[in-house]
Amino acid sequence: MKNCPQCGQPRLGEEFKCPSCDVFYSQLDELLFEEQQKQESRTLKGALKRVRAAEDRSQALRDELKTLWRNTPLKTKIVIWTIIAFIFVLVVPVF
After folding, report:
1. pLDDT at residue 1 above 60?
2. Which terminus of the chain is more exposed, N or C, with fewer CB under 10 A?
């Protein structure tokens, strides 16, 4: 669809919604927009958007980090802790 179904404004690029009246160009565009929002919510970009939009940013950041750690596989956690332990051993002198 090349024009908005409600106001008739021409479609700009690959937009899903009309910029003037905020109406979806088609039902397919609405579904694609929702899928794109779901995928973005699972990315770092989505997490940063949620933190920036929150009233208490420090609490929102803590919540995002807890969620990230909770969803991290056990093998990855073991690798991270092993790297931290090696760095600690290299930095802290042993007498």
Report:
1. no
2. C
CA distances from 56 to 42, 46, 63, 69 (A): 21, 17, 11, 20
Q: 80: pLDDT confidence band, cut at 50, 70 and 90?
A: very high
Residues linked to residue 17 through DSSP beta bridges, in sequence order: 24
47 Cβ neighbours under 8 A, 6+ residues apart: 64, 68
Amino acid at 68: L
CA 54, CA 57: separation in Å to the nearest integer? 5
Tell me the backbone φ, ψ of residue 74, rounded to 5 degrees: -60, -40
Query: 3-class SS at 3?
Result: strand
In this prediction the pTM is 0.52
- Spell out the residues 6+ positions from residue 86 whose beta carbon is closer than 8 angstroms to its own: none
